[in-house]
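Tokens for chain A. Residues wanted.
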């Protein structure tokens, strides 16, 4: 899949100190092949790879992120951009009912979507009405009625036996019905053909002109691969649309349609359907789709790891301590350090998180061996000294310094730092904040 291909590409960059132009070229070539194999449209592939190349070459070499991480970050950001950046929400009419018209090929998933969308709207507090304007197929009206029933959403359908149906008239009647019955959103289901043809397009245009939709949603089967682009262009030029709904994402392992349609048509993907059930439907989130395509398991597991380091038990003990009147002791200090160490190499961890490049200076100044030194000093203290640090006078300091092989002034520094941590804890206690990680060497 596209995810696997991209992940494999990023792997080859791991461990590289910096990227040469040849590295970048090889990577971009691989990404290009992976995208093409995933049926991403050529213009999209071109723009995408050009942007990656430019940014990867221009990236500062001396950042906290290593080259592989930098490339992942760049690719992720470009993916989100190609997918449309931010989620585009439905626009509602100032004077209800808001009219949403569905257009797309037969089998794209319009009728199924009408039910899903209706239910979604109802959950949002709207009162939707589905209008059956597909009079092309004998069973289409019935299908929408069943879908509406399942979704618990009202359906307006033409009277049976009224001769050959006129979808434009039904659309008009449906809106009239919504107005008189106080439905505030109307979803107009329309007919489609297996292929794009002039008659179908004309029918959609006639319905459009009759009802003047607030939103025309183009419903696109993500599984049709390369054909997606041509179909989307035909509908854009024929009927026009405001947004796209991608369906059957559950069956599309490649992601080509998702990545192409926005760029090719200039219209955002607004919703995504990923199964036949009513709940297999969601607002489309470019960021989520990008991370699904990128499959950034590494990064996610790293964050998870960091969260786990503060295990529940420890957190509870800390919370109890926090709630009590007891003072923050050197033992607590040690425990906090241990918790931080539990996360693995802190520097590495911070370095892998996106957006940490600016923290480079702090990271470089940060020395994990400082933890060892603090631990050694605290371990040279007696239990009483750890609990009541204020008893640590000059002679005790000399003894502790000798015990851990450090200078007295190093011990003084550490105690000073601890004193600040203690103060901070006291302040947080009285302020009711959460325990942080005070006194971290930096
Ligand atoms: P229409 O002709 O555009 O109205 O398409 P339909 O709503 O009748 O859907 C055509 C077929 O695709 C039906 O069998 C649906 O159950 C199925 N379908 C619709 N949406 C999805 C989806 O997101 N995933 C899957 N797997 N099937 C879908
Ligand atoms: Mg249908």
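Reply:
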């Amino acid at each position: 899949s596209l995810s696997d291909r991209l992940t494999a590409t990023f792997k080859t960059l791991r461990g590289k100190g910096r990227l040469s132009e040849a590295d970048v070229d090889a990577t971009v070539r691989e990404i290009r092949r992976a995208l093409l194999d995933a049926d991403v449209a050529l213009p999209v592939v071109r723009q995408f790879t050009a942007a990656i190349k430019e940014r990867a070459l221009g990236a500062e070499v001396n950042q906290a992120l290593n080259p592989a991480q930098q490339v992942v970050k760049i690719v992720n950001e470009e993916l989100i951009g190609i997918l449309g950046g931010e989620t585009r929400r439905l626009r509602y009419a100032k004077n209800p009912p808001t009219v949403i018209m569905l257009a797309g090929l037969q089998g794209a998933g319009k009728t199924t979507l009408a039910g899903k969308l209706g239910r979604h709207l109802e959950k949002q507090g709207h009162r939707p009405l589905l209008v059956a304007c597909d009079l092309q197929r004998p069973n289409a009206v019935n299908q929408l009625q069943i879908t509406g029933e399942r979704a618990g959403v009202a359906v307006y359908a033409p009277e049976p036996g009224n001769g050959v149906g006129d979808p434009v008239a039904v659309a008009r009647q449906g809106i009239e019905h919504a107005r008189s019955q106080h439905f505030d959103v109307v979803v107009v289901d329309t007919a489609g053909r297996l292929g794009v043809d002039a008659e179908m397009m004309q029918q959609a245009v006639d319905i459009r002109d009759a009802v003047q939709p607030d939103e025309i949603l183009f419903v696109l089967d993500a599984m049709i691969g390369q054909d997606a682009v041509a179909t989307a262009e035909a509908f854009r030029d024929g009927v026009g649309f405001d947004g796209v709904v991608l369906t059957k994402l559950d069956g599309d392992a490649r992601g080509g349609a998702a990545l192409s349609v926005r760029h090719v048509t200039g219209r955002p993907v607004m919703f995504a359907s990923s199964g036949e059930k009513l709940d297999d439907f969601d607002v489309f989130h470019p960021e989520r789709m990008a991370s699904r395509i990128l499959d950034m398991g590494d990064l996610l597991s790293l964050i998870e790891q960091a969260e786990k380091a503060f295990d529940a038990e420890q957190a509870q003990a800390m919370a109890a301590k926090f709630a009590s009147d007891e003072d923050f002791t050197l033992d607590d200090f040690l425990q906090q350090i241990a918790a931080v160490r539990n996360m693995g190499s802190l520097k590495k961890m911070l370095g892998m998180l996106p957006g940490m490049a600016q923290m480079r200076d702090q990271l470089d100044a940060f020395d994990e061996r400082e933890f060892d030194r603090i631990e050694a000093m605290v371990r040279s203290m007696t239990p009483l000294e750890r609990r009541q640090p204020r008893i640590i006078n000059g002679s005790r300091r000399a003894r502790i310094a000798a015990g851990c092989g450090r200078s007295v002034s190093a011990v003084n520094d550490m105690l000073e730092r601890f004193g600040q941590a203690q103060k901070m804890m006291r302040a947080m206690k009285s302020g009711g904040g959460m325990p942080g990680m005070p006194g971290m060497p930096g």
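Residues 87 and 244 are 12 Å apart (CA to CA). The pocket of guanosine-5'-diphosphate (ligand 1) is lined by residues 104, 106-112, 192, 219, 247-248, 250-251, 273-276, 280 (CB under 6 Å).
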